[in-house]
Amino acid sequence: MKKLIILFSILMVLASVSLVRAGSLDGWDFYFFGINARDFEDREVLPVVVGAVASLATHEVLGHMLTGELMGMDTSFSWSDRVVYADGWDEASSDQRAMFAASGFISQLVVGTTLTLIPKTRHSDFTLGFNSFTMATGFAYGITGGLGDDDVSDVENLNTNGYSGRMVAFITGGYAGVLSYINLNKYKEDE
Length: 191
Hints:
By secondary structure, the protein is mostly helical. It has helices at residues 2-16, 45-70, 94-117, 125-144, 154-160, 165-183, and strands at 17-21, 28-32, 35-36, 74-78, 83-87.
């Protein structure tokens, strides 16, 4: 199973990354899921950064903390470790632990999808920052396996409780990449 996940990871990176010779520009352009760094040139920096911070807060607070509280766990955020801890983890079932671990990714995707579905926020800089950070989170977790500390890694906790953590992370990154593509107005639609 581990070899399959590694092969899938390599294929995802190869499928999503491309170098294209720029027609009228000098040199090569780097694309990731059809998104180029030049696509961000006309964007306001502050709303993009605020959107990225909101995505991180959604992952930790709306995802892990709210889910933990709803499952009867006493949750707390550690600034030094940058993770949410849940008292009652040992008493939780395997499915509850997996849900707690996946809840950060799920909350980011739900909020990002909602922002993308609302016409007034669909192409906003805030929404682009939110979804781009969610994409980065998914791929970073998928490639690295999390923070490196098995006790607090969402990926490792999903793996330990019977789910493929890397697959969940890569699906999150890929889906958020599609949302970012839509946010950049690359997807032509009738409005």
